[in-house]
Amino acid sequence: MTPDDVGDADVVEADVVEATEPAQLKALAHPLRNRILFTIGQEGATVSQLAKRLSSNKGNIAHHLMVLERAGLARADRTRTVRGGTERYWVRTSRRLRTPSGPQGADHTAALFGAVAQELATAVGEPLMHLRRVRLTRAQAQALSAHLERVIEGLDEAPVGEPTHGVLVSVFERPGRNGGR
């Protein structure tokens, strides 16, 4: 599954949320909600900003933000006055999300890949994307997972104004004997 912080939005409640509660998994089972979480960034965003960035209407965005808030994945933050009205910024409650694998996380996985596909369709330049099937020992797979986790954890956010990039990493064993081969 990330701009720099502005105002109170730099108080991120957690680095990683282990999304295992039914309300969290249900909230994450919709591609637009995943895209909202991608788009909010660490600086936060208003309903109007999200609607523009995601080519959706404000009512739709507001509804999905409420679902994310009830699930504890987003929260209302600071406000600003615009032309006599008040806009509220929304922020994520964590920098990263982890969801369960297998049947419990299947709906989120499908929604996440749908959201990533939508993001890739509008990506600037040529996105790097590889899916490789490779035979690994269990120890090699664990070492690869640990290495990729260190790479992701070690990424420092660039300042506001720099482009935002999506990074999706996965290592998984295919089902069946010998990885289903």
Automatic annotation (TrEMBL):
Coiled coil region boundaries: none
UniProt keyword annotations, A-Z: DNA-binding, Transcription, Transcription regulation
All residue ranges annotated as the HTH arsR-type domain in the record: 23-118
Gene3D superfamilies: Winged helix-like DNA-binding domain superfamily/Winged helix DNA-binding domain (1.10.10.10)
InterPro entries documented for this protein: ArsR-like_HTH, HTH_ArsR_DNA-bd_dom, HTH_MetalResp_TranReg, WH-like_DNA-bd_sf, WH_DNA-bd_sf
Protein's name according to its UniProt entry: HTH arsR-type domain-containing protein
